[in-house]
Amino acid sequence: MENLSWTGALGPYLLPVMNVAAIVLIAAVIARALVSFFAWVSGADALPAGGATLTARRRGLGPTLDLAAQVALGIILVAALLIGLAGFVLPGTSKGILGWAALRFWPVWLALILSFTLSIRFKRRLGLYGKLMDSPVGMFGLAIVLFWVFTAIFAALIVTHDPLAQLSGMKNAVPGSALKSGAEGQFSWYLFGGDHLARDVFSRMVMGAQRVLQIAPAATIFAFMVGITLGLPAGYKGGKLDTLLSFFANLVLAFPVILLFYLLVTPEIVETGIPMYLAAVLFLFPVIFVTILINARYRTNPSRRNLYLGVALVIGLWAYVGLAFNQDPLGIWSMEPNMLNVFVSVVFVNSPGVFRIVRGLVMDIKARDYVAAGQTRGETSWYIMLWEILPNARGPLIVDFCLRIGYTAILLGTLGFFGLGVSPESPDWGSTINAGRRLLSVFPHPAIVPAIALMSLVLGLNLLADGLREESLKD
């Protein structure tokens, strides 16, 4: 079997065009920056007529350079799209590495098209999420985030090999290498090469997304429930409660985040049982939060309140016993010890930051007229905090939520890099980067591929947060 090239049969035709477009794009960007700089330094208002004319000419170049950059970028994107589409049309080795990779991600492309079609169609009914469709930055970030979310969901359909399988002759294989001795029906290439243990880098990258997205969003949700449950009364009531909770939050925040995160998952700390005790405390907060939320909302309707509370408590305590103590008799709620340690550490490290943000927002919002109106109606404090103040603080909290998922992904990658991830053989990106860095100067692909994946996910979350911030400010 023949090895694959990066761009396949279309490469000889499209690569020269892409190279020229890339040169034009870089030159246009640099020239645009220089024109803007000199126009700002010269200052048209402070110059005589000749200087003002020169400045006007420089500024007049701006639209031309912008157009050149946009055209060049468009050409690059169209060429890349054609190379990707070739994977759906051309046969075998003609697809190239990028064409085959695009074809393997077909469930992701289909899900993305369906998601954006429905989102744009019903954007006026989707609240803040729908308004995101009017923000180019937000849509681009959302597309990147959804790409990795759908990759994690459809990982089993995308991977080309078992991410833990070691195939003979594929140790440190370069991208596009054909299998030396593949079985019948087995995918014939290592698209992004092999690592130092002859495992497929492409498949490990795909499964690594599943690992990151199993922990980061769920742990961030738990941290928000802890921070909101404590931050609301601290900001609303103030006094000794606020002083005490703020002291403990500041105590945790005084430690460097990476160091604290590192200490909580080291074997010596794990042996003391501290993560288990933290899980017993922190995992109670989602149950407490939901219970208070339902009780505050349906306080005046006891029959519905009791029904909803009963269901919430049964499910919540069932999940609590399974996740915190691994004692679920049905085996539905459970967590591996290593994952539990990482999960608890993420919640513990992020909760104080969320507490500080919620507390500050509540202290600002509690002076608004609608809060005073709720107090006049005789509403309880928890009702005002959860159903009057919290919805009006959703914009900054949603933005912070997206950013914290990105920070958590970086923390998980850092733990994996230090060998403290969920398991030694796990395909998580941090562990893969750490394993590949030892031969980085000779075989860079095993480390670069997961590093780019991690960078793109964090970039997407940051862009999504920027888009959400822009739209939330318009409310």
UniProtKB/TrEMBL annotation:
**Mind telling me which SUPFAM superfamilies this protein's record contains?**
MetI-like
Q: Which domain of life is it from?
A: Bacteria
Q: Does the keyword Membrane apply?
A: yes
UniProt membrane topology term: Multi-pass membrane protein
Pfam families listed in its UniProt record: BPD_transp_1
Entry annotated with the keyword DNA-binding: no
Where's the ABC transmembrane type-1 domain? 209-465
Q: Which Gene3D superfamilies match?
A: MetI-like
Q: Where are the transmembrane segments?
A: 20-41, 67-91, 97-118, 139-160, 212-232, 244-264, 276-295, 307-327, 339-358, 401-422, 442-465
Q: Enumerate the InterPro entries for this protein.
A: BP-dependent_transpt_permease, MetI-like, MetI-like_sf
The places in or outside the cell where this protein is found are: Cell membrane
Task: Kindly list any coiled-coil regions of this protein.
Answer: none
| Sorted UniProt keywords | Cell membrane, Membrane, Transmembrane, Transmembrane helix, Transport
PANTHER family attached here?
OLIGOPEPTIDE TRANSPORT SYSTEM PERMEASE PROTEIN APPC, PEPTIDE ABC TRANSPORTER PERMEASE PROTEIN
By sequence similarity, the record places it as follows: Belongs to the binding-protein-dependent transport system permease family.
Protein name per its UniProtKB record: ABC transporter permease
To which species is this protein native? Pseudogemmobacter lacusdianii
